[in-house]
Write a structure and sequence with these properties.
Structural class: mainly alpha
Radius of gyration: 21 Å
Order of helices and strands: HHHH
Largest sheet: none
Number of strands: 0
Helix content: 55-70%
Shape: elongated
Number of helices: 4
Strand content: under 5%
Oligomer: single chain
Length: 76
């Protein structure tokens, strides 16, 4: 077990044990606001999404925001 403890505590690169990274709070709030604004979902519903699902949902909403065909201000 001592060999295992050494690997868990220090890891190979001396980084944080467990490999859990925090998600930037400001970025999370921007994503939540964007989804809530477009889909009118509750805060809990949005926060319940897994990160990859939320990123995919954001990408899909952004696609809907862009017009499929460029609009011209004056008809020809």
């Amino acid at each position: 077990m001592p060999a295992l403890r050494g690997r868990v505590r220090g890891g190979r690169g001396g980084g944080h044990a467990g490999g859990i990274l925090t998600y930037a709070t400001d970025q999370l709030w921007e994503e939540v606001a964007y989804v809530a604004h477009h889909l009118h979902w509750s805060l809990d519903s949005i926060l319940d999404l897994e990160h990859p699902d939320r990123v995919r949902l954001l990408a899909e909403i952004r696609k809907l925001d862009r017009p499929a065909v460029p609009r011209h201000p004056f008809p020809t």
